[in-house]
């Protein structure tokens, strides 16, 4: 009886789309441990009591990706796509840096808050333009956000007068580099934001309505949902989250690099969403999946450096990992294996045992 | 059926997307001034790299300030869209079609320029390479290349490193994007100087010229080697400055536990050198607008010039040396 329950639980878990993403994270970590048995070790810095370790670095690196992946998963659920997140990151970073450079006062919390507020406001404005183009004008999301992706980087260049701008402000720097109870602020902040967004969309009907738009906008309107307002909200939310990601990203080195900050991050975000099991066709989303996807991408990036894979082979290595992952997720590919395994059909208990071994491996 | 329809829809979208990108590239190349009746002004098409860092900014500003209308030139400035070679080739082609008098080219990537250059040659438009070289290097395709010598600069950094670490040590290299001519040349110069010494390269990774990635890569490489790294060779200032922050966060002291050497010599790097964050900065002189002007005039007058003109650069190996030039650093 309990055995059967466990079987079901396991089956359920394997069927979760982000299950293979979790497996991939563990596989990558295992690969790193093979290279260095101390890879997972976390030590405490004797000077300031902060936790130090590769895993902590991964958590820190994942924070900006987490932000944009969550925003992206909501946009994709409506059947759209937001290609502008990387550029919005650059704009947000540029606004914050220029504001702090002009304001001076490197210790002032007020200046940091002002910079963050202004950066998020500008991001929201860009998101609103996306949203209006999609929801009210009726342009394809692909096109509207592509325009914003090209324009955004231009805007960032205008704001910084084409220069990479640095500033000093300790409270702002703390967001990206600081620690609270030994853990990096940036990760705690990202997780807190993810939880809030997750609760809001899943505890209310908002999530269902967003998915309804993605499944069939006409039918959802007839069912009494107003797609336009919701679409606008979703695009603004995505841009604000991208703005937060931009702040985290430029905060690490306190420099905005107009051509590099957030460069191609939209692809990382889409990848994270897909790895998390959200279909690009729209109609459903999984915040948990996006979190797994974002963590996987950060782990992958760090693994490439840790293993010392040569720069020229990096894209190929990344591609292989992601293709294998997508193959594992594909129902059709999995069904081949299931069919091959089925014929003996002697002991049903042997089935759950196998995947469990894989988990352990 | 619906799948097929969705697919065609997607194809359409992709096509429109590609078109939009193409259009954007065109508009950025031709936007700087379309007055065809420029009178006796010499039109110069500048296929540039665009925002990449302080060095590039100083370089391109210097070129723009040299080829002014007062000097008898109309400069058409076409920066690449996000360092994309495709957008550069588009800009280059449209300059050839337009029939400008001279083309200045700073290629984002070394390879793949043969066809474009041959086309310019057919149209009898002289091409002068600024800073970045091409690969394979065929001097018959262009007039001259004006650049500080990357190999020479990098080998000077290498010589300094060998001198600093007579007993050897572990070092990591932070490279620019794989495949860029500058990266290959800086590697070549460094390797030629370091070969035969006791220095051991424990890792070489790209950080894409960016401070953020420089920090992230260094952080991981320090952990991968249990902080047993004595030297970091950053192929540009930004990556070196990022690395310095990572070194500090790992609880080490830049300049004492880990020495960082960079190439470029931008103001930020000079400040960091004066602060002791960096240990060695080799300038890579961006201010060669005058030389370029001279070459353009000579070329248009039909005189021949050397196929490679080296711009002299200085090395700074101490806080004092940096302090001395800090006040009147232009970039």
UniProtKB/TrEMBL annotation, chain A:
Q: Where found?
A: Cell membrane
Q: Which residues cross the membrane?
A: 17-34, 55-77, 112-139, 174-201, 230-250, 270-297, 304-330
Domain of life of the organism encoding this protein: Bacteria
Q: Which UniProt keywords apply?
A: Cell membrane, Membrane, Transmembrane, Transmembrane helix
Q: How does it sit in the membrane?
A: Multi-pass membrane protein
Q: Does the keyword Zinc apply?
A: no
For this entry, the protein name equals ABC transporter permease
Q: Record the organism.
A: Agromyces allii
UniProtKB/TrEMBL annotation, chain B:
The subcellular location is: Cell envelope
Q: Which keywords has UniProt assigned to this entry? A: Signal
The protein's name in its UniProt record: ABC transporter substrate-binding protein
Task: Spell out the InterPro entries in the cross-references.
Answer: Peripla_BP_I, SBP_2_dom
- What residues does the Periplasmic binding protein domain cover? 45-303
Q: Which residues cross the membrane?
A: none
- Please name the source species: Agromyces allii
Pfam family name, one: Peripla_BP_4
Cleaved signal peptide residues? 1-24
Q: What family does this belong to?
A: Belongs to the bacterial solute-binding protein 2 family.
């Amino acid at each position: 009886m309990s055995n059967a329950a466990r079987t079901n639980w396991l089956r359920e878990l394997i069927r979760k789309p982000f299950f293979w993403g979790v497996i991939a994270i563990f596989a990558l970590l295992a690969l790193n441990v093979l290279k260095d048995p101390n890879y997972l070790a976390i030590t405490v810095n004797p000077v300031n009591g902060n936790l130090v370790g590769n895993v902590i670095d991964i958590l820190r690196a994942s924070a900006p990706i987490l932000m944009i992946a969550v925003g992206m998963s909501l946009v994709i659920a409506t059947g759209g796509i937001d290609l502008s997140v990387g550029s919005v990151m650059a704009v947000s970073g540029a606004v914050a840096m220029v504001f702090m450079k002009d304001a001076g006062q490197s210790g002032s919390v007020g200046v940091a808050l002002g910079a963050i507020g202004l950066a998020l406001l500008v991001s929201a404005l860009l998101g609103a333009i996306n949203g209006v183009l999609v929801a009210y004008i009726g342009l394809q999301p692909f096109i509207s956000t592509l325009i914003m992706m090209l324009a955004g980087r231009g805007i960032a260049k205008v704001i910084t007068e084409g220069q990479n701008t640095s500033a000093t402000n300790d409270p702002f720097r703390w967001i990206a580099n600081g620690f609270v109870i030994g853990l990096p602020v940036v990760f705690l902040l990202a997780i807190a934001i993810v939880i809030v967004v997750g609760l809001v969309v899943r505890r209310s009907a908002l999530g269902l309505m967003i998915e309804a738009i993605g499944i069939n906008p006409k039918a959802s309107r007839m069912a009494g949902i107003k797609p336009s307002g919701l679409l606008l909200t979703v695009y603004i939310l995505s841009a604000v989250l991208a703005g937060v990601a931009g702040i985290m990203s430029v905060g690490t080195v306190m420099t905005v690099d107009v051509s590099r900050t957030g460069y191609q991050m939209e692809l990382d975000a889409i990848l994270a969403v897909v790895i998390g099991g959200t279909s690009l066709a729209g109609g459903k989303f999984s915040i948990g999946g996006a979190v797994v996807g974002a963590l996987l991408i950060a782990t992958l990036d760090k693994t490439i450096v840790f293993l010392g894979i040569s720069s020229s082979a990096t894209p190929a290595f990344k591609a292989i990992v992601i293709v294998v992952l997508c193959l594992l997720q594909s129902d059709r590919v999995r069904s081949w294996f299931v069919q091959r395994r089925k014929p003996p059909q002697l002991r049903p208990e042997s089935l759950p045992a196998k995947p469990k071994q894989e988990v352990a491996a | 059926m619906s799948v097929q329809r969705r697919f065609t829809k997607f194809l359409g979208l992709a096509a429109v997307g590609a078109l939009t990108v193409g259009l954007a590239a065109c508009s950025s190349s031709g936007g700087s001034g379309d007055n065809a009746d420029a009178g006796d002004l010499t039109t110069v098409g500048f296929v540039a790299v665009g925002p990449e860092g302080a060095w590039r900014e100083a370089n391109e500003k210097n070129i723009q300030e040299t080829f002014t209308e007062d000097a008898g030139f109309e400069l058409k400035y076409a920066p690449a869209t996000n360092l994309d070679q495709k957008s550069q080739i588009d800009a280059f082609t449209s300059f050839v079609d337009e029939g400008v008098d001279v083309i200045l080219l700073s290629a984002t990537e070394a390879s793949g320029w043969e066809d474009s250059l041959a086309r310019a040659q057919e149209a009898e438009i002289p091409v002068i390479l600024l800073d970045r070289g091409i690969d394979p290097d065929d001097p018959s395709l262009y007039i001259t290349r004006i650049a500080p010598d990357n190999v020479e600069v990098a080998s000077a950094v290498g010589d300094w490193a060998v001198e600093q670490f007579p007993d050897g040590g572990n070092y990591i290299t932070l490279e620019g994007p794989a495949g860029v001519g500058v990266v290959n040349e800086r590697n070549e110069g460094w390797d030629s100087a370091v070969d035969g010494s006791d220095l051991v390269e424990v890792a070489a990774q790209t950080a894409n010229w960016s401070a953020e990635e420089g920090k992230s890569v260094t952080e991981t490489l320090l952990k991968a080697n249990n902080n047993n790294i004595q030297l970091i060779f950053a192929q540009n200032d930004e990556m070196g400055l990022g690395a310095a922050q990572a070194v500090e966060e790992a609880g080490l002291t830049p300049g004492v536990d880990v020495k960082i050497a960079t190439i470029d010599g931008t103001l930020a790097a000079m400040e960091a050198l004066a602060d002791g964050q960096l240990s060695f900065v080799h300038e890579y002189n961006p201010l060669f607008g005058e030389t370029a002007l001279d070459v353009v005039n000579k070329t248009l007058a039909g005189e021949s010039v050397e196929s490679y003109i080296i711009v002299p650069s200085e090395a700074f190996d101490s806080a004092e040396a940096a302090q001395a030039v800090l006040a009147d650093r232009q970039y």
